[in-house]
Amino acid sequence: MIRSRHDTSDAARRPAPLAVVLAFACVYVMWGLTYLAIRVAVQTLPPLTMAGVRFVVAGGLMYAWLWARGTPPPTRTHWRSAALVGGLMLLGGNGGVVWAETLVHSGIAALLVATVPLWLVLLNAVRPGGVRPNGAEIGGLLLGFAGVWALVRPAAASAEQAVHPVGAGLLLFASLSWAVGSLYSRHAPLPKSALLGTAMEMLAGGGLLLVGGGVSGEWARLEWTRFSIPSLAALAYLIVFGSLIAFTAYIWLLRVCTPAQVGTYAYVNPGVAVFCGWAVLDEPLSSATFAALVLIMLAVVLITKYGRRAPAQAARVPGIRRADAMPSSRADVRHEPADG
Description:
Elements: H1 5-13, H2 17-32, H3 34-41, H4 47-68, H5 76-100, H6 106-113, H7 116-126, H8 135-152, H9 165-185, H10 194-215, H11 229-256, H12 259-262, H13 265-281, H14 287-306
Helix pairs in contact: 2-11, 2-13, 3-6, 3-11, 4-10, 4-11, 5-9, 5-10, 6-9, 6-13, 7-9, 8-14, 13-14
């Protein structure tokens, strides 16, 4: 059969299967490991200051790289939007996660952050001109909040394995803040370049996290000699792998795969986080944790796979406005999950 020139061009643009597999591995594993890295980092580093340094450094490096490549500079309006999104998703979202991980295990944090899709469904229903949830989304809400209840109810575990109520509350607040920022970012005036928008949000959100660390007294209590090598290594991991490499892989995957395929990271990251917390930090894997993992993941599948899609709208993963498969984040941007 004779191949046309157009067919040859399409074949040339088709990504190598190995490259796709490696990119998915980066998103699945690197973002899943961010919760473990945060838990190690906050053992000796002040949480809000640590997160602020992470995002200011990562955002600064990304912004400088884009500037060197000749990316058009953002406007003042873009910066205002980036500051608001960064405040909601990084100060409120990631800041709540890192603070909570001084009180709860990394696997628990990942599970409660996985409730972001639930909050998105609720917020999208109550906003002006919102969309009423369909049957799959209602089922997802019921399963997801049942999973949260299984995890945090007083009788869920022994005294040694019980989830700290303040930590659980912080994580639910962080997930809600991330969801609000995600919804706002869909319509906010931001640069066309997702990478530039992400860099700006990391710079703005990271700056707010540093201010939050100062206001909360972290700067006054800094003792450099107490910073451990594992904590500093975990911070380096969050900057390089969590906020730069994994996010770049995520952006690339959005260009070569369908949003639904890329959005599968939402099903994988919590499981990776729970397993790594158990394997590396010896975090308990109770029956309540396992039940919550199953229920919350089923809820995420129902909502992200069978929920309604608003035309021309994209769910956000740190820094992304084009992925309609998953709600989380621009950041970790991960996420990056709201860690993340």
